[in-house]
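Q: Start with the shorter request: fold the first protein.
A: Done. Sequence, then structure:
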Amino acid sequence: MKNLSLFTLLLVLSTSLVARENPFEPTNAYEEEAARMIEINEVEQDYDVEFQQEQQYINTMYEKMNKPVEEKPKMVKKPTPKPALTEAKVKKLIKKAQKESEAKTRIIVKKVVNEPKEIKQVVYVKPRLDVTMEKEILPFVKIEYDNDKIDIHSKYKVTNKLTLPGKKKIILDYAAKENFYTKRETLDSTSFLKIAIGNHKKEKFFRVVIELSELPENYEVTYDNMMVTIVKLYEM
């Protein structure tokens, strides 16, 4: 009897354990998890709908912001048409212009007639008559000349007088030991054109060259200790 009761108890316990391990039988824990999953799905679906609505709103606002604003056409005032010129008005304007032109012409003519004529004065310059010119070429050489004569003043003595064949020049050498650069001057004379003074310091002299308008035989040269005179000769 005791054995039968023990067998019966074990059978009931085994049946109860098998029933709980069946995965297809719903339990409280399964039901709770299923309910939570449904809530999550509902929340995700609601979020998807809200996200789509927000995205659609953003797209709509972006399109409105980027849409070019249509400017309203401005009202342009039509210029008031000028009255057409009639033939009578044209003739009147022409006559007015002619009268103004004639009046200006009369004023100009009147000014020209009344203005005094300028008297042109002719100034005659008398030809130069042996005006003596003076010039200091160097501190120790001074000249006086006109159209007929030239005087060369110097504190040094003339040591040599030269003329070159076919050359319109007279050359004078002075004994001196001076330091200077060559000097050249153009003379305002019809007989004596130019004068040049060159230094020969090593040879202890300087040279004076007078350029003439004619050959040297047409001139006379005289000199003393302080002055050389050259005179132009004329045929009698």
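Q: Next, the second protein, separately.
A: Sequence, then structure:
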Amino acid sequence: MGVFGLMAVRFMVPMTSPTPSSAAQSLAFQDSCGSRGSPSGEWWPVVASSSRELLASVRSRYCGDAYINASGWLQAASFSEAEAAQDFAERLAEATGERFWIADPLRP
């Protein structure tokens, strides 16, 4: 045995399990994505470049009510808070491999 054969080595291993990617956390099919209401009347749309393939994918895998909006963007959802919209846009982008972002807010 070499010199290292008799040494005891200890490693500190965290006892928490790894967290799944943010896209895997609660990003599953929903009939309708986004906020149910907006007390302020403002809505933050989550959009992507329009394509038939991406629309079909988003509708079948994530947001059943996704559509092509009046500006020509694929709109997956709208949220009453910018932070929630940003989080959803990031998770949807990670899940699909496509770029999603928040469009200008819709105000009453």
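Q: Describe the second briefly.
A: The radius of gyration is 21 Å. Helices lie at 52-61, 82-96.
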